[in-house]
Amino acid sequence: xxSLPAAIPVLACLLTGALLTGCGASGGGPAGASAPATSASVxxxxxxxxxxxxATAASTHRPKPAPTTSAPRKSAAAYAGNPAGHAAVxxxxxxxxxxxxxxxxxxxxxxxxxxxxxxxxxxAGGVITFSCGPRPVVITMKATAKVRNASSRVVLDGGxxxxxxxxxxxxxxxxxxxxxxxxxxxxxxxDQSTPELTVQNLTFADGNSTGQTAEGGGGGAILVRxxxxxxxxxxxxxxxxxxxxxxxxxxxxxxxxxxxxxPVYITASTFGGAPGLGGSCSNGGALSSIGVSWVVLNSVxxxxxxxxxxxxxxxxxxxxxxxxxxxxxxxxxxxxRVEGSLVAHNDAKEGGGAFFFVSNDHTGTLALxxxxxxxxxxxxxxxxxxxxxxxxxxxxxxxxxxxxD
Length: 405
What we know:
Elements: E1 2-3, E2 10-11, H1 17-22, E3 55-56, E4 68-69, E5 103-105, H2 115-124, E6 126-130, E7 137-140, E8 145-146, E9 153-165, E10 173-176, E11 196-205, E12 222-225, E13 228-232, E14 235-237, E15 253-256, E16 264-267, E17 270-272, E18 280-281, E19 287-290, E20 294-297, E21 300-302, E22 305-306, E23 327-331, E24 335-339, E25 342-344, E26 347-348, E27 355-359, E28 365-369, E29 372-374, E30 382-383, E31 389-392, E32 398-400, E33 403-404
Parallel strand pairs: 2-4, 5-6, 6-9, 7-9, 8-10, 9-11, 10-12, 11-13, 11-14, 12-15, 13-16, 14-17, 15-19, 16-20, 17-21, 18-22, 19-23, 20-24, 21-25, 22-26, 23-27, 24-28, 25-29, 27-31, 28-32, 29-33
Antiparallel strand pairs: 1-33, 3-30
């Protein structure tokens, strides 16, 4: 266990699924038996890397008692994020001003807030708000909303009252600057500055990308490639993607490529939040990426699972997967910074019950600052001294003001 002074209290967010509904590539990882691993091989394309001898079976530690916080809540957005998180939020990671929207979904009644209206608004782009009445509403998506690449930005703001549901049948939101069906606007689609996609004050529920093969699959609720992406004040619950595969992942969100390597920002958001609400995928029960940097601030990532088997590259006779119960990242020079956040009760069948981080050229860095990692079992392998983490990168993970149990 690594314990430093500032532990984050456990979030007492026991919202039930019924209540919420009513509110209405290539990768890296050990290649060995599922028994404790002492060595591993990882690949980005044909590259390989061997972790230090610190890679070993995950240690188990009894969590320390922590104070809980609770308060009456009135909307889905009120449940998002870690109320005990106090990380400073830079301007780039904050919510977009939507006081003067480009367009509005709905005419003030729940019946007017339809899947078709959401799909049309996202395709048209701009700043999008919702007018569905004063009470929470669930919009069941009949088709995936797709961003057109000619849009300079797309902002979806649910005002804390809107749930977009994939009904367990489809992905909810999609942006891919290299998808010619959405318009090919540059000759360098993998590194273009727009569209800028922001989702804020929304709940994404029951997204499912199982069987989707575009960009290697994954991204049960949201798949992004290119441009810029951030999420602020959102909830992600019960999202799914394929249960096997060595490198696909991100039951909630999968991101491939960001303009000039700038990070994805996740601010004051919740992934899971209570038993039965977490995401499930072969890898990355919440988030997943290849070669993409992340900054996760004042957020909660709990009760998510990586359910694949065989790691990456896949052991013989296995389909591969099972790493990064909460977050799965892979690539070369990229960074992950998690600050003011609670990451607990996630589970990986293979490695990294909380975080699977592999920088194939050993240039990437992982920082866990003023955060709590607790009860994130890695059933195959983890990095010694860092419960719930499997790490190959530059030096050691930066753990400051955090508790890892």
